[in-house]
Specification:
The protein is an alpha/beta fold and about 525 residues long. A five-stranded parallel β-sheet has the order 6-3-2-10-17, with helices on one face. Strand 2, helix 1 and strand 3 form a beta-alpha-beta unit. The longest helix has 24 residues.
Length: about 525
């Protein structure tokens, strides 16, 4: 793995990857092992911080109970039947085997084992059989840690931490050669803000992979880390790359509700093992909303909890794990310990939970090899829309999709276009700072973030209406115009970059929701 200190102000790579979750790391490892010089960008000082690291439930692997046809049927049932069949078929045929080969044997993820030494299996909502590999109740963290531990074995990889991608570099948008305006748009690099040196680097590559993760932080309540601000969606939209299915934002039904703990996800596997949802009178209510009760698809469970909270005028529901046949401290040690530290004994009392923004089913449109509608630009993971999820994601499929399309992007890049033309690179200017830059007021930036989050939660959240969405787009467009003006005159920082990306991505989601008034999956219109 190369030393990032050797990176100059203008640097060329064979491949640039924005994001260091499972999709970005799988792409980077695959491409570097094929001989490419790869740059991995993380806006965090620690690349462990990603949506992958926060994932708890698990990842679908090989199971004796399972078949590709059965897995495909479950994916399409959860996705309301609008999944892209070709992508689903690719996932069910190649994905589960890749978990064992790439994550298990190659990278060494310490999946929990059964008595025979094989990966233990669990079940989550809308799965008809046990097929999910897990590492206690912190599967994402185990995967992320193993991938990062593996990186030093791979020559040709450079991780640039504290580097926030500002914009994609294209020939038609950024070249000072007027002839390039008339050619087909092609991505040739990234402008990236180096937080440590307080400068913007000009990084070139013939192929760029967007693997920036999710956008949960656009909403007031979310299971995502604060870094999930829809950066990849915004960057792709600004250059005209196709973004589809943006209306499908999945809400996880059970995020811990406690004043001293935000964003803590109570895994769906708890309900898969028998935990029940109760209202404040102690009544089990899910059977009133769906025949599969607690094991209904996530969008159905989230709406049921939301309705029950409205009916009772309460701020949360209750998840009762007291009747589990297994010991929760053994199967879910992280959850048990976290709740205990907050004064909640899950073996003696229910856990207060609330739905929260969790996963983006839409994204930058890609094909089976991660190609977008713009040359030189690939995407994988939550940033991409492969069509696998349809209108609602099946549990424990996201990590699988990120792994498979990450590997396929890495292979694609290794057989991709030749080196960039020196003349084209020379025609790209370095980042231009404003002549009279303004210092930003952190209070104003935080307030704009809160406005976006409140607008999205209240008007474009679990239950939507035409009137609410119309109010949302008006408010967001006004805010977007103001933020863009401020961005062009401000001293650039990570916070300002994220704010600019957030308001654009929020606008993309709401615009797509307004254009599609039919309720489907996690896009529910009243």
């Amino acid at each position: 793995m190369s030393d990032p200190a050797q990176i100059g102000h203008r640097t060329e790579f064979d491949l640039l990857i924005v994001g260091t979750g499972i999709a970005g790391l799988a792409a980077g490892i695959t491409a570097a092992e094929a001989g490419l010089k790869v740059g991995l960008l993380s806006k965090e000082s620690d690349p462990f911080e990603s949506n992958t690291g926060w994932a708890r439930g698990g990842i679908v692997g090989v199971s004796d109970e399972d078949t590709p046809e059965l897995l495909a049927a479950d994916i399409c049932y959860a996705g309301a039947g609008v999944n892209f069949e070709e992508a689903v078929r690719l996932l069910v045929e190649e994905g589960p085997k890749l978990v064992g080969e790439f994550l298990g044997s190659k990278v060494g993820v310490p999946f929990t084992r059964d008595r025979t030494g094989r990966p233990a299996l669990t079940r989550e909502a809308a799965h008809t059989v046990r097929r999910i590999y897990y590492a206690d109740d912190a599967t994402g963290a185990a995967i992320q840690r193993a991938l990062l531990t593996y990186l030093p074995r791979v020559p040709g990889l450079t991780i640039l931490t504290g580097h926030t991608a500002v914009d994609l570099i294209t020939n038609t948008h950024n070249s000072i050669d007027p002839q390039e305006r008339y050619r087909k748009t092609r991505v040739i690099g990234v402008y990236a803000h180096d937080e440590r040196d307080e400068c913007v680097r000009t990084l070139f590559a013939p192929v760029v992979v967007l693997a920036t993760g999710g956008l949960g932080n656009l909403f007031r309540h979310t299971s995502n880390p604060e870094s999930a601000t829809g950066d990849g969606i915004a960057m792709a939209a600004r250059i005209g790359a196709e973004v589809i299915d943006a209306r499908y934002v999945q809400f996880h039904p059970t995020i811990l509700y406690h004043r001293d703990s935000q964003r803590y996800l109570i895994t769906e596997a708890l309900r898969g093992e028998g935990a029940l949802l109760l209202n404040h009178t102690g009544e089990r209510f899910m059977s009133r909303y769906h025949a599969d009760a607690e094991l209904a698809p996530r969008d159905e469970v989230s709406r049921a909890i939301y309705r029950e909270m409205e009916r009772e005028d309460s701020e949360y529901a209750l998840l009762d794990a007291r009747g589990l046949k297994l010991d929760p401290a053994h199967r879910f040690p992280g959850i048990v310990e976290h709740c205990r530290n907050l004064g909640i004994d899950v073996r003696r009392e229910p856990i207060p939970v609330v739905p929260a923004a969790h996963y983006f089913c839409g994204g930058v449109k890609v094909d089976r090899d991660g190609n977008t509608s713009t040359a030189g630009l690939l995407a994988a993971g939550e940033t991409a829309c492969t069509g696998v999820h349809g209108a609602n994601r099946l549990a424990s499929i996201s990590l699988l999709e990120g792994l498979l399309w990450g590997v396929r992007c890495g292979r694609n890049a290794a057989t991709g276009p030749p080196d960039l033309d020196d003349r084209l690179i020379e025609s790209i200017p370095d980042w231009i700072e404003p002549r009279h830059p303004e210092e930003f007021d952190p209070l104003l930036v935080r307030q704009d973030f809160r406005t976006i989050q409140s607008t999205m939660w209240n008007y474009a959240g679990i239950i939507r209406s035409t009137k609410r969405l119309s109010r949302a787009i008006a408010d967001l467009e006004y805010l977007r115009h103001r933020i863009e003006q401020f961005y062009r005159s401000a001293i650039i920082t990570r916070q300002i970059i994220e704010l600019r990306n957030s308001v654009l991505t929020a606008s993309v989601i709401v615009a797509d929701a307004i254009a599609n008034t039919k309720s489907l999956g996690c896009h529910y219109m009243e």
